[in-house]
Amino acid sequence: MQFTNQKITIAGHIVEYDFMEQPIKYGPDNRKKHTSTGHPLSTPEENEISSANRAKSAVRRLVNSNAYKWLKANGTSYLPIFVTFTFEDDIRDLDIASSFFKVAMQRLNYFVGGSKKHFLHYIAVTEFQDKTRDGVIRWSGLSRH
Q1: Which one of 22, 30, 85, 105 has the minimum C-beta count within 10 Å?
Q2: What is residue 142's predicted lDDT score, i.e. its pLDDT?
């Protein structure tokens, strides 16, 4: 097993360099021996924040890895677009929200592409709005056409 306190992550044209105070394990023998989530001294709130930050980083890296790969006829890249979809009515049922989102994306794909052929590429994230909105669903995502 090997240890390092440096990590380099490449996602498309972005290179991330991290320097950690504590060394991390890497290599073929780096298998988890337990199913513990996070540091034993972490609180559930700290674990939730850490998990959310890892998820955000994963989505950002996925977008950076795939953005700017598709070219227009003039040779310039399509830029990623961030979009948030909110419902006119307060929808809290995920199945209903998912079916509305699917139909909306099909219609948007047809509007942008002019045919039923799959044209848009996107990452969609379901968001349950904060407690003041009592879990109303909205969709956020990045798109490239």
Answers
A1: 22
A2: 54
Tell me the residue length of the chain.
Answer: 145
Encoded amino acid at 49, one letter: I
Cα dihedral sign for 48, 52, 53, 57?
positive
Nearest C-alpha neighbor of 92 from the set 129, 141, 132, 140: 129
Task: Say how many domains are in the chain.
Answer: 2
Closest CA to 25 of 53, 51, 5, 54: 5
In eight-state DSSP terms, residue 132 is: G
Confidence of residue 145 (pLDDT cuts 50, 70, 90): very low
**Domain containing residue 116:** 81-144
- Same domain as 88, residue 62: no
Using DSSP's 3-state secondary structure scheme, residue 45 falls into helix
